[in-house]
Amino acid sequence: MTAVFTVIRDDTPAPRLPKGAVVAMGNFDGVHLGHRAVIAAALEMGRAHGRPALAVTFEPHPRRYFSPNTPQFRLTDEAAKLRLLAGTGLAGAVVMTFDKQRAETTAQDFIHHDLIKRLGLSGIAVGYDFHFGKGRVGSPSLLVAEAPRLGIEVDVQPHVDIDERPVSSTAIRMALAEGQIADATAMLGGPWFVTGAVVHGDKRGRDLGYPTANIRLDNSCGLKHGIYAVRVGRGKMRIDGVASFGRRPTFDNGAPLLEVFLFDFKGDLYGEILDVAFIGFIREELKFDSVDALIRRMDEDSATARAQLAAAPEAFPKLGEIG
Fold it and tell me: What does residue 283 show for φ and ψ, rounded to 5 degrees?
């Protein structure tokens, strides 16, 4: 039987808190390879000491608190982040609310109250650049210095590089903004994905011979407008397809919308929640002079998408279930 991934929050009663656990601590936006190195260190520490390993993370993202009026392109919202964390082998996650009180908590108080007193941790793994506490004065070096007195183990992971470039959430956002799906996938350790409910559109795709499942993404989504090869998760089912993300310049140049055409699929998906994993970038969004020209290009895009997907038959994010 698979162990249940447990989510602990600020209001979780003390008797339900695991004592002596090891934690991987970070914001974990995207749960990329750098994050996974920290998680792997926590899992190894937990195995060595016979302790459960958890993630400690923060919601909303601290950037949202400090810059509430600035659009924040998150790689993963809270639900997606937890599902990715659940797929790593961790026993659960501690989600700490990042609000005024937490922002003003000193690094020392955070260590002693939130980590030691409340959670009773036996070990912590962090990345080399993780900072915490009021003024971000908390650092990996502070944790290392405090470790002997607190009786805990601390593991600090160095940056992870690909082609001599550090992996980071910022670098992944930039790759997605430029349509560099292969680069984003390499840094994430798997395809980037979004989750959303299928909504009604103008049904224009049906008239073109390409009926689509339409999903509205967050307004802050910075993905490059264009055409993509995608693999869709419908529960445990995986369905290949081709997707357009953009403003439909040939027709209305409206609000950005993700429109997914599923290959070899018939059925009503309205209201269903789908996971859409981006496997390959095909081309930029274009304005066509005629509907016939658009259809010809859609035929070509579909063929390209099928080829890209056939070359990556198992590509899909490793997602766990939340208990």
Answer: -165, 170
